[in-house]
Amino acid sequence: MAIPSGSGTEVLKRVYIPAVTNSPTKVIDGVANHIYTVLNLTFCEQGNATELIHLFVYPSADSGNGIYLLGSQSLSAFSTFVWNDKIVLTGTDELVFQTSDSANVDVYCNYIDQDWT
Question: Residue 61 gets which letter from DSSP?
């Protein structure tokens, strides 16, 4: 994606997904001509079990080649883990979360959406 030369919008957004389990779940599903800056993610275990959590990016909606950002992070029963590292996604990149086993983890994400359409 080239550096935009026209005008656009920049909006602070959030997404929350309750009760994520071991199926890959899109946190951000990128759209062409957008730049997403992820500010932080909060993961909260709600099922009274220790979980392993994973966070990865599929570049350009290529669901076969995920890039792990967070792999096998332990999340104790009823505990919270906060990811504060900034992540930049462009275009049709996808940010995906998953647990290792059947689980009940709430996910909350704050991000900036720059729309150059």
Answer: G
| Beta pairing partners, 54 | 98
76 contacts 40 by C-beta, under 8 angstroms:
no
Backbone angles phi, psi at 36, to 5 degrees: -115, 130
Structure pTM?
0.89
pLDDT digits (tens, 9 = 90+) for 26-64: 999 999 999 999 999 999 999 999 999 999 999 876 666
Write down the domain spans for the chain.
9-115
Q: What is the CA radius of gyration of the chain?
A: 15
Q: Which fold has domain 9-115?
A: Jelly Rolls (2.60.120)
**Whole-angstrom Cα distance, residue 73 to residue 103?**
14
CB of 21 within 8 A of CB of 104? yes
Measured CA to CA, the distance from residue 94 to residue 57 in angstroms comes to: 5
